[in-house]
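Figure-free illustration: sequence to structure, shown twice.
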Amino acid sequence: MFLARVEGNLVATRKHPSFEGWRLVICQPIDNSGTAEGTPQIAIDPHGAGLHQRVIISSDGLAARKAVGDDKSPARWMVLGIVDEKEPGVPV
């Protein structure tokens, strides 16, 4: 699992059938201070995260494929949740 920031949406005129109806977002992995780390990843987003929101993403491809309902899906990354506090009582 990684902390990441949503950098935008992905629009595709052609995509794998398992992605039909799923929102795809570009997620930039970040450290605790918000500095970018590594390369951006494309993730399916079942939560509706907004632009520049901090999210938790997972590279567990099995969970992503189960979420889209296709064992042969190329899905790998998935947004697990939206971060609303750095610590209890301290908003992001």
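We now fold a second protein in the same way, so the two outputs can be compared directly.
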Amino acid sequence: MTPSSDDIERGIEDTRRRMDATQSAMTEKLEMLEEQIRETVEDAHSAVEDVVTSVKETISDTADTIKRTFDISYQTERHPWVVFSGSVLVGYLLGNRRGKSSSRSSPPGQNFDDEPYRHHLQRRLTSGGLTQFGNEIGSVKGAVVTAVIGMLWKMAKQALSRSYPQSEKTDTAK
């Protein structure tokens, strides 16, 4: 039984149809794969942009926080007593250090702790060197004390007005 030419042609035609179907299916699958790859790349690109934006915002917020931390006027407005106390402490430490270094650096015989030198210095000051400016020194002392008390009073009023905003006065006579 030999195949007839019609059978051969039918076989060839079936093979061509299967090849076309396979080619068509392969084209569809490649197009779907291309679309999935494109979507994945777009999603990855979007995710990277989101991360970059988030990092930029975080860096900006951190920079603002650092700027505010070292902004003396901002910190003075927010925490006036802490800044005042810190400045007093720094002044005390610097003044205390200055006093120690001057007594150490003075040559022998001119140390303020030496009894003869102290008596000599007192005699010079009381003999007219310092007494001629007594009234002026008293005036300056009074002005400084007045200014410090005024500043402390103003700071206390500001701190209290922020802590306890004005509200309706309650009748305490009940």
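Summary for the second example: The helical segments are 5-69, 72-78, 80-105, 115-129, 134-163.
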